Amino acid sequence: MADSSPPTSTVRALAGDLSARARATDQRRLLVLSGDRDAGWDAAFSAVDGADVDDDAVTFVTTREGVRFDRVSPARTDSLLGTTRSVVVCDAHEGFSPNLFGKLSGVVDGGGLLILLTPSLDAWPDSKSAFDESLAVPPFPTEAVTGRFRRRLVDLLWAHPGVALVEVDGDGGETVRRTGETDADVFAGGRTAPATPAAAAFPRVAYEACRTRDQSRALAALERLRGGTEAVVVEADRGRGKSSAAGLAAACLAAEGESVLVTAPRYRNAEEAFRRALELLETLGVEASHDADAHVVSVDPGGAGGGSGGGRIRFCRPAEVGSEPADVLLVDEAAALPVHLLTSFLDADRVAFFTTVHGYEGAGRGFTVRFRDRLDESEHRVTDVRLDDPIRYARGDPVESLAFRALLLDARPPVEQMVAEATPESVTYRSWSPDDLLADEHRLREVFGLLVLAHYRTEPNDLARLLDAPNLTLRALTHDGHVVSVALLAREGGLDAELRRRMYEGQRVRGNMLPDVLTSQVRDEDAAVPVGYRVMRIATHHTVRSRGLGSTLLDEIRRELHAGDPLAGRLGPHDTGEAGARNRGERPVDWLGVGYGATPALVSFWRDNGFATLYLSTSRNETSGEHSVVMCDALSRRGRQMQDRHTDWFLDRLEGTLSDPLRDLDADVVRAALGAVDRAFAPSLTDREWRVVVDASFGPGLYSVNPRPFRLLALRALTVEERPLDERQERLLVRKVLQAHPWDAVADELGFVSTGQCMKALGRAYQVLVERDGEEDAAAYRRRYE
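Structure tokens predicted for tRNA(Met) cytidine acetyltransferase TmcA:
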């Protein structure tokens, strides 16, 4: 509706008072307008008037149109990241989500207001929205989605300092329930001024471009990247200017003629670094061109003020860093990248990691626990710097502290001392409902903190999924009451025939990852008939890893699922027919499964815990560079039937996929995935094919005459329980025989002194296989060469 309604004087005055207090402390305040949507809309315009800011500093985040201010739809709020506003009005009647709240809480500048329009706070938790619909994973209805996340948020809004609450109604009435008071001592505000080191190597103007003392300290640490074998780790909470520091350092290095490579999960994560780099290069008087499409900034070697000139700054996707030569590598949002990629970045002599300690792009503690030991063991001299001072507002900001509490951005697992003595014998198996978690904030923080720590991408929406999604359930192990291992399980399958048909014909079905892959990729229309549980996340406290706790947790889960379906009761009476009977728990759970980015260690872990390989994706994840693997452990006759047919299909297609779409898959991933197939491949070779193999292995025959029987025997060698070859021989079979790499490339990769030696090694490997698996005719051919 139009924004010409009569002013709501109470709201306008309250907004003016909140703005004055926010400006006095250089912090932000939150104003909640709850009740009728139209009335809240009118009150929001009055609040903007009361805040007394320029119109171009105001943004409305809403699906509605008809505002004179900047308007952004909730689906497009990524466009606000890296920008600041004096006032942001968020219309939470439509499009609200935890992710949205997390993003907007960082957009408002110091002295500004975040205004939240909500339904009545009593009714809001139980209202349904598009976000709730996204949590309604088939066959669960939207009605099964709860409002626990919003209930917890509402409780915080009633209690948190710096939050003003006004109830509005359709008759123009408003009632102030809270005025947004804060503790003057806790929320005192204040900033620190940047400083230039006495012996700075980077230009003074670079330090003058810093916005806090912390940021200037970070820039000074990044001077170490000018030479040597150096690694700099910059840790910060969101909004502390680490990306800006990366951009300032990149500009200084490029101005000196260095080639700087910037990587991040997505380019938008690095946009602030590029923006700041361009600003500084202009201030330095360095002539530079910017190819926005290619994400490249090139310094003119002949330009004024360019120093050595010829430097450049380029963005590269994480999975492609190894193929892009550069002098310096800057890794932004490092906590949002998997460990194996971070480890590969240590091949660079000069590298900096910029990591968010608390934020929806990743978890810095996870970066520290999972990667830091590898960094310390590298040849790099490591320098650490931490940024604590916010860039956009002063310390102690109440909006930031509210976001941290509401979204659990600072959730941590138990301290090491509390769980250090945990063993499989000392732990207790727990099944906690979302209500159990809400009833104990400490337990909720331990659980979510451990989930965040173990996974390289966790977002605020995941907290709402944990609390509200009807298809998820949590299992844990505790030691002396503290969480040491946790698994988040997603119920999948049990879909009716019509939905299975649509899935087969290309429709995406939310939340049924394993059946969806087996249906859409492998073309099995019946894959979504059985009911199973996918291990969506599993995590063990870093202090007690490698003690068998993860395996103990999986054993307990498997034992529980054998007894019945723990979530069948959430489906309700609407679920009818054969799928309904299965979903109501009238038959047991059929399978326990998992899907993840394949690494040799992870595949081995799941294989050792009884899971079998059913599928390898033919494309890589753009961020991690990994191929996904789907593994399954059948728990019922129906589950065994599904697993058996997909095992057969997986083995049947390997000969073709490994030599084409999976031709570059890591050899050790191939070895691990094949070793996790739950039956040995059984090739059927003709007498003629056996003769080709024997002649090439023991006599003067040639492998290249007919590679097919060699591939079939290789598949058997890599799937039998008692593996007959050593690791190097297995890699040789993978690279040369199954993936058809050139002889010289294979010889170089596996460390053979020549292609001739590599060929002889392959012959010796097949001598072992002929002796082991050769049939009677093969033995006769073999005796010719004795």
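The domain at 408-494+531-589 is CATH 3.40.630.30 (Aminopeptidase).
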